[in-house]
Write a structure and sequence with these properties.
The chain is 6% helix and 36% strand. It is mostly beta strands. Strand 3 and strand 4 form a beta hairpin. The model has no long low-confidence stretch (mean pLDDT 92). It catalyses: 4 hydroquinone + O2 = 4 benzosemiquinone + 2 H2O. Keywords: Apoplast, Copper, Glycoprotein, Lignin degradation, Metal-binding, Oxidoreductase, Repeat, Secreted. Its cofactor is Cu cation.
Length: 354
Amino acid sequence: GETILLRIINAALNQQLFFSIANHKMTVVAADGFYDKPFSTNVVVIGPGQTTDVLVTADQPPARYYMAATAYNSARGAAFDNTTTTAILEYKNAPCKSKNGASLRPALPQLPAWNDTNTAAQYNSQFRALNNDKGSVPLNIDENLFFTISLGQINCSRPSIRCQGPNNTRFTASMNNISFVLPTRNSILQATYQNTPGVFTTDFPPVPPVQFDYTGNVPRGLWTPVRGTKVYKLKYGSSVQIVLQNTNITTIEDHPMHLHGYHFFVVGTGIGNFDPKRDPAKFNLVDPPVRNTIGTSPGGWVAIRFIADNPGVWLMHCHLDVHIGWGLAMAFLVENGVGELQSVEPPPLDLPQC
């Protein structure tokens, strides 16, 4: 009869996961540190870096029950580790053996298939914020951004272990056709503060440079992105909307997108290409969930909103570790405000030199 709180964290580098407990329902009450309206589920879907809080009531016959997690992999043809990790939920008065003396094996939960995108979509659709102060969701948008999330391929200048793509190519990734290059000689924040030239540029595009059928049959000429260290500037206090559009370049995939320095409202999601004329009418502006990491629907889109009230340089990237190395990232440069505590603190006098 005891009810316990489980705080679940996906600490995997490159794998989204399905999580379940044999014969037990879970009540989801929070995600990414924010309370949600409780809902019951048999399975939790969780991406790298995401957190989910669930309540579990011990309402089954005293025994041992497996808690198990297995891969959720939405990318067509991509290799992944299709193993299952387990732990045991044990009742204090659980018998060790059956009446005939045989050892009792814990029950295993029924987990979804590794490519069950419908279960993932249905699970994510149930999130609603428990409490949103009236007016906290931005309604008047200052920055309306549209970012494509794409995998791709670039030609290898010479064969190497990194050339794992077809026809002597290696895999790459991009946002709005820009494959992000991490700076090597100085950080973007330090270069901003010290006015150091040549570290980054501020011309990250607010929309894709070329419009196309994002989830359809994409021409091969659009598979190769441009490499660069580009940021997008935001004024302090501006209201920002970003539509993250999944694309069918190489393959569609559920990318867990994470924004440093902020939590954001998830106001909408859908399948196919985002329609700026019709889809905003379906946005949830009443009780949207608050997250810091959100998956892009495979072959679809997700819309988020936030207020740029934290000055500095903040990375937005895919939480699949291999993808950030491929360039699936960008950075926001949020300018200083004018009031107290609205500017980046100066570096300490004893800051070690590089």
